[in-house]
Amino acid sequence: MYDVTIIGCGIAGASLAYQLSQYDLRVLVLERENDVSMGTTKANSAIVHAGYDPEYGTLMAKLNVRGAEMMEPLCRALSVEYRRTGSFVIALNETDLPHLQKLYKNGVKNGVPGLRLLSGEEARAMEPHLADTVCGALLAPSAGIVDPWGLCIAEAEVAVRNGVELRLRSEVRGVEDHGGRYVVHTSSGDVETAYLVNCSGTHGHEISAMVGPREWDAHPSRGEYYLLDKSSGGLVQHVIFQCPTVRGKGVLVSPTVHGNLIVGPNAQDADDADDRKTTLSGLDEVADSSRRSVPCLDLRQSIRNFAGVRAVTSESDFILRPSASSPRLLHICGIKSPGLTAAPAIAEYALELLGGMGLTLCRKSSWDGGRERICFRKLSETEKAELIRRDPRYGRVICRCETITEGEIVAAIHSPIPPCSIDGIKRRAGAGMGRCQGGFCGPRVLELLARELGSNPMQIPQDGDGTRLLIEETKGGDRK
Amino acid sequence: MNYDLVVIGGGPAGLAAANAAWEDGCRSICIVERDRELGGILNQCIHNGFGLHYFKEELTGPEYAGRFVEKLRATGVAVRLDAMVLDITRDRQVHIVSSGSGYEVLEARAVVLAMGCRERTRGAIAIPGTRPAGVFTAGTAQRYLNIEGYMVGKRVVILGSGDIGLIMARRMTLEGAKVLACVEVLPYSGGLTRNIVQCLNDFDIPLYLSHTITDIQGRNRVERVVVSQVGSDRRPIPGTEMTFDCDTVLLSVGLIPENELSRAAGIVMDPRTNGPVVYENMETSLPGVFACGNVVHVHDLVDFVTAEATRAGKAAAACCAGTHPAEQRVLPLQGGNLVGYTVPQHIHLDADFSVVELFFRVRAVCGASRIVLTDETGAQLAAFPRQRLAPGEMENLRLSRALLDRAQGSVTVSIEEAAK
Predict the structure, then answer these.
(1) Judged by CB atoms within 8 Å, which residues 138-177 of B form the interface with A?
(2) B chain contacts of residue A273, beta-carbon cutoff 8 Å
(3) What would the CATH number be for the domain defined by A1-80+145-218+311-373?
(4) What is the ipTM metric for this complex?
């Protein structure tokens, strides 16, 4: 029997697993997909929000500011890319100015450090590509950008290395509360556990409904994005937001830690919790809106479009509380923006809640929280030369757009949570992230996966199970 | 490590440039190739049709490349395979990495850029819909099929009528797939007429001009696509939707010269070609650095790549031999009415040539027309009649020394369509 079972290994589940791995507990993470970080965590704006948006006094406000504070040291310890860029909220006309005032005051109350109101001229002096119509801005120096799936994978890896068990391809189908012990029915078999934590993202309400009456309604909201080539990556230095509306924080323009420019999202009601399609009208909306902030934006530099689903619910705040019908089930749900930023703080808070629910938390005598990762591209000439001397696989560049070597890909394949798909390699090593979008390196990554895993190339998926790439062998001829 | 000439890329352009430089007496040459063998993209082009102009016979891609590789074997040209160029500096240091030799800096007196091009992807053209497996660029599918030996799908819709897409329509059909349609957003095909005839018409594959894919559906693998007619603004026309049940979408929506190294070296680029601005001898704005093939502008026929690369190789050899005049008068060339770009963009008037080969593409399909060359005074230098001009077929003119010497200031290439 497990002490704690976490349902879902997105950023919320991984952050909690990382925290719990520091304690003397038997912890299990259940994930329905073939990899971690497969839901909202892999498709979002990748922003570390400063924390002036959420209304003062809410959990969201407190955990946002705390999360933003935790992010930098956490990313450093885990070798995850993070950059404190600062953010702007811009006023595009006079009527936006009171909104900036309001955000400023709210931010000060929330404890956001360094907030400053700028004139249009001051804003343009710092960001020359902003529209001439910008007549004011709120500068939040503590905002930043992060690699969201990188953080999720890193936390999950450290958790696994410190004894947490991860079961992939294990969708939860039912939960029985036997009073003091749960039996969880999953697609890979039954699990017994004392405590259960619901981190199932846009599916959170479904898990909640397995133990009692519905506690909230889900209103999944789809956001569409453009990702631009690195040649546009330096167009802005800060995260550029427009004034928030009831539907969200609006369309942003931001550099990414990978050196690209991200543009989006809009907010559309999603058909269901996994509705990640893009639409012509949605992409048009993002294009039009983003050009109001940065008119010289060239969307012909786009290398990818995608959509993510926000776990919006009938409750405005994060849902962080024990189930009303089953007191040893903790919900960590409704983790919409700024959920990525808040995730480390949510995990910290969840420990308190679990302690309050009766879980005994006793720190392990030894815990290894570090993680190192080689990024060939970032090394100096002499470091590159030395690395290739030590392991010649670092001298073979597989992904030419991002300069990712065979060494990095093989290291990813043999990491604590081994990926089985081309996109799993992309999220870990960065191959295929670039301007050709895996056109050149895809076949070679597939070959490396098949070689290292000893599997048939036909079985290697693009991403999730079922995303088959190769249908059959060509006819005729003898094979080697 | 020092060489007279470093050639970056061992595809058709790099091979022809290295061979030509060797023939002109350059004896210290190194080709750096990122793949595991020479030949570049020709290795996966197993269809025939290569070499009709250059060899006056019909070869497959590997055969065409093979002729140059064999020729190269008889020379002393060094070849680094499986080696990636990370950086080219302005003083022609070429930084490379490979498993075998680690990190190296090659110092060169001349460099030929021959990195080729890459395919435009789904993300570049923002096709709406879900993001399932089964959407491939035509060239990637061609590699899986012809090199790796795998079929990527059984029911196929092709977006774009570029030559690789047309070739793949036939190839997939021969391999047992059903190609349901080829869809082209423009009112004309971007491919060669011979490929429309031999790869679509001969297999009864419909070509939908002025149409595009407006939705890709399917959760794990492509399940269907919606195709709509587009107006003259290229926006879909509501009510014209057709649905195709398919498992695969192949994209043949354009090629982009791969000039990240050139840009990083500060070489002046032409936004119309996405390639370096070049002189008649294929020299770029950076002295001693030459460029040829698809890295300069995207070609339809490898035969023209070979010819262009031969010029680059000869010029690089001359540069190494020091027979390369320094200060020269420059004549600019530019595209006028209906002409998208010209290569070269500049001519060294004092250079030793009797004829300059000029390449350009028109921006739209033209019927009976005249290609007209004028100079800055408006004087007509020459006119060449044509029955038909199309963006998918690169045009080529031979300009005599006498004509160029007559030009005042610059030369503009324009199209005059005959009155209808």
Answers:
(1) 139-140, 143-145, 147-154, 175-176
(2) none
(3) 3.50.50.60
(4) 0.94
